[in-house]
Write a structure and sequence with these properties.
About 17% of the residues have low confidence. The protein is of the alpha+beta class.
Length: 129
């Protein structure tokens, strides 16, 4: 068998594509689930985010890219959600009493969120949490 440089190149390209594609797909999914600005917003804006009302001020939770899917957890006696990759405590008065169509955690926060829990717009929890 005569191995040519073209064959080696094609095998290398195939190997690179086969190993990088799953890593990039995982990275994008993880990025979106860390509550980063804009990730996943378009999927939910019409029909869900645009219906959410802030429990504290009764205004809208969402303006353009404010809301996004994220991760959440219970810590002691409160919830935490990820916003821009950081865990943020959720004040009870920021929780919307409505479940998302995907039954997951969602957060609405300012574009330049400063990390202060009181500056969250609202948080959607999965059912029965």
């Amino acid at each position: 068998m005569n191995i040519t440089s073209d064959y080696i190149y094609r095998v290398g390209v195939f190997f690179l594509a086969a190993t990088l594609a799953p890593m990039l797909a995982f990275h994008e999914g993880a990025w979106a689930q860390d509550g980063h600005l804009g990730h996943g917003h378009d999927n939910w804006h019409k029909g869900f985010y645009d219906t959410l009302q802030r429990p504290d001020t009764k205004g809208s939770c969402c303006n353009l890219t404010d809301c996004k899917p994220t991760q959440g957890r219970v810590v002691d006696d409160h919830y935490e959600v990820k916003v821009n990759g950081a865990w943020i405590s959720v004040p009870a008065y920021k929780i919307v009493k409505k479940s998302a169509p995907d039954m997951g955690f969602h957060v609405c926060a300012p574009v330049r969120f400063d990390g202060k829990p009181e500056n969250l717009y609202c948080v959607v929890l999965p059912p029965e949490t």
